[in-house]
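Pipeline run #58 for the internal structure catalog. This entry was flagged by the ingest filter as a single-chain record with no existing model, so it goes straight to prediction. Upstream metadata was stripped on purpose; only the residue string is passed forward. Reviewer on rotation: M.T. Logging verbosity set to normal.
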Amino acid sequence: MTKDIVIQLFLDLEQFGDIKAAADVRRISYSNNSELIRKILFDYTKKIYDLNITAGLIESKTAGLKEQCAQKDAIIEQLRSQIHKLNQELEIEHSNLALAIKRVKK
């Protein structure tokens, strides 16, 4: 189903030149100025839609990666805490061993 809509559009020569250049770059063929404008509008609308979809996917993926990063940071912090406790226990054991050695030597 198509619907005809008439729009009056005023462009200066520079704007119209930019539109024609964009059509040439995108290899859009047209038979008249109306078709040129319609195809360019459709092309840009489609590209903006695709960009929005892509941006949404990137945002969701980024959010997931940030969550994973936070989880990994929490694990790293937990492991650092365990290492610190184990180092403290090791120092206590070294001290106890040194005291035991001194007692045996006496």
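catalog note: The chain has two helices and no strands.
catalog note: The chain has a mean pLDDT of 93.
status: ready for reviewer M.T.
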